Amino acid sequence: MISAIIAKEWTEYRRDGRVVGVLLLLALLVAVGLVTGWSGLSEQQRQAQAAQRDDQATFLKQGEKNPHSAAHFGRMAYKPLPPLSVFDPGASPYLGQVIWLEAHAQDPAMFRPAEDAPDLRRLADLSVAGVLSLLIPLLLFLIGYGTFASERERGTLRQAVSSGSALQKLFTGKLLAVAAIGIGVAVIAITVSAVMAMSAPAGVLWSDILFRSVGLMFGYALYGVAFTALALFVSARTKTATSALLVLLSLWALSVVVLPRIAATASEHLYPTPDSETFWSETYQTIRESRPDRDSAEYKAAERLVLSRALGREVTDEEVAAMELNRSGLSLEVSEVIDANAFGAAYDQLYEAYEQQQEMRRAFSILSPAILLHHVSSGLAGTDTASHRHFAMEAEKQRNVIVRKMNEDMMLNGAGESFAYLADEDFWESIPDFRYQPVSLSYALRSVLWDFLLLALWAAVALWLAWRAARSQKII
Amino acid sequence: MLRTENLTKKFGAKLALDELNLQVNAEDIVCLLGANGAGKTTTINLFLGFLDPTSGAAFVNGRNVADNVEAARADLAYVPEQVSLYPVLTGLENLVYFNRLAGKDTPDQQVLRTYFDRVGLDQDAADTKVESYSKGMRQKVGLAIALAKGAKALLLDEPLSGLDPKAANEFCTLLRTLADNGTAVLMATHDLFRAKEVGDRIGIMKAGRLLDDLKASEINHSQLESIYLDHMHDGGSAAGEAA
After folding, report:
1. Which CATH number is B2-75+152-242 given?
2. Maximum alpha-carbon separation in chain B
């Protein structure tokens, strides 16, 4: 019986030009999103690979040079755009893609396409995920608003029920028929995105993309079920199909368009992220205040640590004082060790603010599953702030490796020369390149687990409400 | 097959059905006559479980509708005054769909097509979208749906409305055949002539009460009309008792 209901619903959709028109429009927008995403991904990967080669070549051809000067010259850490950014670019355009690894400072990522783009570009910035999260609810509402209300108005609900169909079966059939349309669109779009991601210019791990894509499909399926259930709930509760449509369009505007923006603004207001100037002035203020005197026990402990690491054995204060060293090199590395805590604390605070903002947005998700889907989608695509933080932390580790190696070379090999010491031209080859391994699937799943569970809860509650409303609705 | 016990329905303060006691046996055709608001449609809706009784009970095949409405509906077929169909589906697609809702998982389309013949619809109509149907054609499809279900009892709410005299006559002949084959038929109608022609018993309702339960074979057309008009023009119960 349920298959008959689904078949009947689909026949009606197929013969209803409006549904076909909306589906075609959605397909067109998804196609635009795919083309935009693909060109963005391939162009970024091409540019990043070229820039990486240039950066490496320039670094290796420095010739004889003071290591600290080279440390200031620095290296660039390029964040490979995740392959599934073709589907959901997430926060990537806003968080930057390159980190300058230089002496003394833990820099933030640079080159944010969203900053460089003119304001009007954002209006046309159609990602596949953006199109789906925005328009799947609208599609489902447009298909589903009349499921019960129109049938009640036409009298076919009375005819169907008197024929022997239980309302529960009608509900199940209609739910599956409507939800399958939205979920089907999402599954096709994700599948095409995954195939594109697998054929990205940079090497990709197919299994990783496959599992992430399956996760995305589950996320969008829950989203589709939640909005289908809402459509059926309203359709069962309202007297006329027109009322149901008006209520659902208002719900769509509120939960998909307005609330995510209110949530973002409110979370930024309650947990503000500092502007660049404030961030740096406060960080350097902390650094200045936290630097110990050179005679202090803390400073001497840092000196022992630096030298022990360089020599691979424990050293005493007396040895530190007596050894023939480039004292400038030692001093530079000690300041790196001491300042690292202040930088770490400043960035921890910054990312803490991001996490609090995310928690705040999650609280708003009581009213809008769209917020949860954004988290799930960008998290699984590897384009959320958690993934960026992982990249920034790995880049900082690399900066520490580079700067330490430079300072140790100066410290151990340039005794008495201070900044006049020059490293050999071969020395630069001993500095390892940055090879970033993006966040693993398990890391991504952990970061979106709560959002996934809340999305499932949303779908379950919406289903329960719709089920109750459908069972208890008036037939005449 | 169909029975009510003191069946009462109130809509707020308005009494729509007042302690109705009615029985329709297999092979019987009972016609309910009455003006709009007399309680005919309410009675049918209570049998179908579309309304909950305020008091009393409706029974289908011995089962209280309130206890198991789905089992009751399984034994019923229903043709309303305005048969509602899916306009973008063809007549046959509508018939197949409602047949499957009735629990027939693999309906034979050739067999289902014969119901179009039985209700007087040509086969071209079966393959035409219902949106182009006249009201009479929709009524016939509604009857075809009811016939195809093969229910034990048939509830008809003004089924002759919109049918031309020939079609109405064929319809009544079909009802007689169904009843003779064991189906219980309860038909609400305004048509005194058809009620007398097809009915075994005729109930006259007014203001939610069954004023008369007449044997059709014991009265002629003019007597029926007279009794009916008497009930409609005065308090009703005295006239009913006299009849």
Report:
1. 3.40.50.300
2. 54
